[in-house]
Amino acid sequence: MIINKNTILYRTNQAWKYKFIVMGAIAAAIPMIILGFNLSALEWLRTLCLIAIGAYSVIGFIFGYTIKCPACKSRWWWESLKHPLGGKKSVQYLYQESCPSCGFINDTST
């Protein structure tokens, strides 16, 4: 997963948080797929997988919530959840070159 180096997410050193969320979602999908095809799985295995998926959901939400603007503290991931893509106030923080709330740029070239 490549994030453009011109985006505010990359320039504020927060791209790793987004990558963590995506990789965790992929890792959580594996037990879901296994359980989906193996309906006769042992009860303890099923319980363990569901606990792991629930734990990822909580941890992923916490990491997503920490993605914020260093200047105005606007929480970009939370804003993208509140305003779905395509809406009037959508926040596409993966492609933003500045903070959608305050315009902070964090230009590292100077």
Describe the protein in words.
There is one protein chain. The chain is mainly α. The chain has a domain at 8-68. It contains four helices and no strands. It has helices at residues 8-11, 15-37, 43-65, 76-82. Helix 2 runs antiparallel to helix 3. The protein is elongated and about 55 Å long. The model has no long low-confidence stretch (mean pLDDT 77).
Per-chain topology:
Elements: H1 8-11, H2 15-37, H3 43-65, H4 76-82
Helix pairs in contact: 2-3
- Report the total helices: 4
Kindly report the average pLDDT value.
77
Q: Give helix and strand order, one letter per element, not per position.
A: HHHH
**End-to-end Cα distance:** 27 Å
Sheet/helix structural class: mainly alpha
List the quaternary state of the chains.
Answer: single chain
Q: What's the number of extended β-strand segments?
A: 0
The coarse overall form would be elongated
Low-confidence stretches: none
Radius of gyration: 17 Å
Q: Quote the beta fraction.
A: under 5%
Question: What share of residues is helical?
Answer: 40-55%
Sheet of most strands: none
Quick structural gist:
By secondary structure, the chain is mostly helical. Helix content is 52%, strand content 0%.
What descriptive keywords fit this protein?
single chain, 110 residues, mainly alpha, 4 helices
